[in-house]
Structure formats: structure tokens, C-alpha cells
Amino acid sequence: MYGRYTQDLGTFARDEAARLRLQQGDGEGGVPRPRRPSELLEYTQGRCAPCRVCALQCQQFLISKVGEDWVFLILLGLVMALVSWAMDFAIATCLQAQKWMYGGLDTNVLLQYLAWVTYPTVLITFSAGFTQILAPQAVGSGIPEMKTILRGVVLKEYLTLKTFVAKVIGLTCALGSGMPLGKEGPFVHIASMCAALLSRFLSLFGGFYENEARNIEMLAAACAVGVGCCFAAPIGGVLFSIEVTSTFFAVRNYWRGFFAATFSAFIFRVLAVWNKDEETITALFKTRFRLDFPFDLQELPAFAVIGIASGFGGALFVYLNRKIVQFMRRQKTINRFLMKKRLLFPALVTLLISTLTFPPGFGQFMAGQLTQKDTLVTLFDNQTWAKQGLSDEFEYLGILEAWRHPRSNVFVTLVVFILMKFWMSALATTIPVPCGGFMPVFVIGAAFGRLVGESMAAWFPDGIHTDSNTYRIVPGGYAVVGAAALSGAVTHTVSTAVIVFELTGQISHILPVMIAVILANAVAQSLQPSLYDSIIRIKKLPYLPELGWGHHEKYNVRVEDIMVRDIRYITLNCKFRDLQHVLHSTKMKSLPLVESAESMILLGSIERAQVGALLSNQLSPERRLQFLRQKVMAEERHRLSEASICFQISTEASSGAPTRSGSRKPLKPALKRVPSTQSEIPAGDAADNSGIALKSLFCTNTAADTTE
């Protein structure tokens, strides 16, 4: 029945449309005449009429095509790829300048230390100051705010041009300083701001860009673009953005995210080839693990241990990060001092971290001279650094030399690196600059996996024997597993496995990576919230978090069990006294606005702070003085107009009858216009005329007294 009904309805609609077209097209004599749109009629006259009509039709066609989603997504991907490539180029230049300053002063260790410490301190201080002045909303990751915005909460100034500029410049300076900070979270925020600004710009071409639901869909696609162009990982970027920002994901946004993220990642890698950084489009951290026998089944317990340990480590990282922030806020003296000296805290933290990573100092035990990118390249290396625990049996080449120390082996260096970077990253992510926490955690996880891999290689120096074949253990594979597991534990995501595959360009370790990531998520989710949910709780953003493990009984709690029933509300016709009573009787941050106390129809809500601001604006001393001045001036004008009328009346009286010294008759001219008897007054005008007579009497007396 349903199929036949829709078919008949479609046939009827086509026939009816054809009939209407024939009626509109028939002219005089049954000859159809061509119709032009009403907006083209003014262009049909003149010598250049065809050209004008053609130009207008082309303009309308282009405007209609600009409204297509794929045009918007191409523009979004292109802009984000350009921004990502330009920022990477600026960051690499800043890091190279630091190396150049450090290497050029090799004759004096004190000058080297001053250059090594001063450079990042200046950059971080500038980033914090610039962000604080231009847009304080750009501080931090940006993913917690995007999670809140995609839930339907409006956060002011988070998607504006000022915030975009502050985020881009502040993030470039922060990452160029060499601090253990990430860029993945800020790129999600930058892509979302870019999408919002593009929507406002393209709204000039049509009103469909002002649709709120459509803007939310584009923001969801922009989150995928941010991760995709940051790591050149479009598939992992889409999945990561869905896991991190969305609770319920609309499948219709799936193709938008993939399309924009793929285009952005493609342009990002093409720009690298164009700049001669790469020979062709390859993975960012390309690995060369063997494909015929990547790992043995007997190694799976080691991968599972990495996953479980990474789960505990991720929960500890989130806990440590939150405790640092809470400690700074609870200490009233420190908090008050740092509120006055806003740039002192980031400068002190940068000074401490850069001092500990100084290569001739303590940094020689933790590869302090390597950047995050160089560190990942070395950790993913598929050669074994140590055999039987001896560091001198492997020839270190190039940047691998940073992991070698003559007085200790590679295990000590890796352990010191993990422990120091762990608390340094937790502390550095609390600096009030645009920064993320994904990349530092990713590097720490890779170092932990490398430590387990080197231990396995030292335990089985000749590899694990299987069917008379000997395959050596590849520690780089363990580093890949550790990076995915720890980053997945901190963010509570499984898509980090896909990001790792796209970053390394190999999928050979898919089974160990998935096992480790799932185990790490299981442990971390039972202990702590994700890093982004923890920041949401710290900032007290309006967001309803997910229930953790062991809280399933709370699913049976109803809204009526937790809601406040005695609600103070504001009506449309409430007086100032009622409004003042509501503000004094409740401490709620938001007040409901209803139509009236009888209907109780909810019209919306208004924040308590906004009500206070409006009242202070309307009832300020300046406003009261202005109102009193206006009232006095109105009374003066009214008195002057009354006096002029009375003066005219008294003038008429003096000209009509001359005044006598004995008795004055000032009322005669005014009273002559009033009928003498009540019978002469019409019934409808009696009251009006008596009022005029009394007014004339009053005005005439006033005029007479004034002249006298």
C-alpha cells in the first residue's frame, strides 16, 4: 500500500506541475511566451540586455553553488591546511633558532645556559601576555569548550576572530619554545573557529549559513579537520573527533568530516613536498618494521602489560594535572599573588623546565636537546639500542647520539626521561597559554613502550625461537604500542590506534595496538575521567559528564528526584519591587522568564548577572540625574507654555475693557465665551466647557497677579 500510494502521488504531482507550466506559458492566441524572473525585467531593455541577463544568471548560479556543503568543506580544509603548514614552518624556525643560539655559544657554558633558558621564557611569556590581552578564551586546549558548545551551550567569544588570532599566534610561540606542549587540542579549536568565521562570511551570499543546526553540523566536521591536518591522519582524525566531542553523532555528518579532513591532510602534505621537506606524500613518522613476521604470539603478554601499565599511567597523569590546578587555586595567597602577576607563573615554570633539560646539565640523562619530533623519530627506530643491557654495543648515529651517555646505559636514560617528562608535561599543560596535552603524553607513551621493548630485547638477545626460525625483537613496535595506549588512556579514546597507523604508515602491529589500547581504556576509565572531562570539571563548564564504572544504579534516577521545585521566576509585567525581591530571595545563576503568573508559559531564561547589569544601568546615579534633568526641563516647558497662554488671555482682557482703580474685571473676556445659562450648553459638551472655564479663570488670575 505504501509503495503504490507514493507512486500515484508522484505521478499526480508531475501532471499537476506540467499543467501549471502550460497555463503560465500560454500567451495571446495560444502561443507560449517566454517568462523572465521578476528580478531580470529591469535588465531586458537596452543594447547590452543579453549580457546583463547572462551576468546576473551567472551570479545567481555561483551564489547557489556557494551554498553547497562541499564548497564550504573545501574552503575549510584549504584554510586549515595553510594555517597548519604555516604554523609548523614558524615553529620549526623558532626551534632551529634556539639550536643555532645554543650551538654558537659552545665556548662558554654559562652563555649557553642563558641562551637555552632565556629563549623559551621570552616566548612563553609573550604567548601568555598576548593571549591574556587579546582573548583570554584562547588559553588551554579548546576541546573541553568544543564539547560544551556541541552540546548546545553558547559560550561567548569562543569562536570569534580575536580568539582565532590569539590562538594561532599564542600556540606558535608556545610550541616554538620547546616546552612539552601539544597542538592537537588547539587545532580542533582553531578549525572550529575557522568554520564559524567562514559561515559568517558566506552568510553574505545566503541565509542558509545562519541556520543554527547547520552551523553545529559544520562545527562537528571542523573538529575532524583539526585533527586531520595536525597529524595528516584523516581517518583517525574523524574517529577521534567523534569520540572526544560527541555523545550522539549524526551519521549525515560522517561524509562531511571525512571529505574535509582528507582534503585538508592532502593539501598539508602537498605543501610539505612543495617546500622540499619531503620527496613525496608519506607518513609523518614513517617506520620500516618487517612485514613478514612483525611480532611473535609469545610477545602478546608484553603488549598487554604495556596496555595495563599505560591505563594506570594515564589515570595518574589526569589526577596529577587536576591536583596541580586545584593546589594553585586553593592557596589563597599564591592565587592572589599570581592574579596580580599573571606572567610570573608561566615564566617560572618555563625557567624550571628549561633548566632541567639543559643538555650539559641534567638534560644529558634524558636526551634534553631533542625536540618532540626528533624524539618520536628516534623512539620509533626499528634498531635495537641495547643488547644484554650494554649501551656501547650499538653504534649511535645522528640524533640517536642524544640517548647515549658514557656513564649510564640506555635503560637509565629512558627511565629518567619518562619520570621527568611525566611531571613536566602535567605541570606545563597548566600554563595559561594555548596548548594541548596529547603530544607530550604520546611521546611519554612511546618512551615507555621503547623501555619495555629494549628490556625484551635484552632478555631475549637472539630473539624468540619459533620452528627453528629466529626473529629478533623490534623495540620500535613496542614504542608504537605504548604511544597509542597511553594517549588513549588519557583521552579515553580507541581511535588513537588508527592515528598511530596513519602516523607511522604501517599497520603491521594492529593486533598488539588494539589489545593495548582497549586494556588501557578499561583501566583508565575505571579510575579517572578523561583529561578533557577533568578540565571541564575544573572550569565548571555547563556540561553533563558520562557516568563512570560502578555508577549504573544512577541510571534509574529521575529528573524530579534532583530538580529544584521552589523556583523564583520573572514575568513580563513584573515591577521593580518584584524583580528586586526575586534577586534577594534566590541565589540561582539563571532565572526563568514566564509570560504571566497565571499561564506560566516559559519564554526563556536570563542570567542573574545580566539582570543585575541591566538594573544598575537603568538605575545608576547618572541615569537618575539625567531623568531628573529631563523632568525639570519638561516642567519648565509646561510652565512657560501655560504662562504664554495666560498672557495672551490677559492681553485680550485689557484691550476689551479698560481697567479701573476701584474694581478689576479681568474675567470678562474669558467668561464671555462661556454660555450664561446651563440650557444653552449642549449635553455632551457641558463637562468640557466647564473645565475650560475653570482653566481660563485660573490662568487669568495668574496673569493678572504677574502683571501687577
TrEMBL record:
Residue span of region Disordered: 654-687
Q: How does it sit in the membrane?
A: Multi-pass membrane protein
Please name the InterPro entries in this protein's record.
CBS_dom_sf, Cl-channel_core, Cl_channel_volt-gated, ClC
Q: Which residues form a coiled coil?
A: none
Q: Where does it localize? A: Membrane
Recorded hits in SUPFAM superfamilies, A to Z, give: CBS-domain pair, Clc chloride channel
Q: Would the keyword Ubl conjugation turn up in this protein's UniProt record?
A: no
Indicate the secretion signal residues. none
List the GO cellular component terms: chloride channel complex; plasma membrane
Where would you say this protein principally sits, based on its record? membrane
Q: Which residues cross the membrane?
A: 70-92, 113-135, 218-242, 254-274, 300-322, 343-362, 438-460, 480-503, 510-527
Q: Which PANTHER family match?
A: CHLORIDE CHANNEL PROTEIN 2 (PTHR45720:SF6)
Q: What is this protein called?
A: CLCN2 protein
Q: Which organism is it from?
A: Chionis minor (Black-faced sheathbill)
Question: What are the leading ranks of the lineage?
Answer: Eukaryota, Metazoa, Chordata, Craniata, Vertebrata
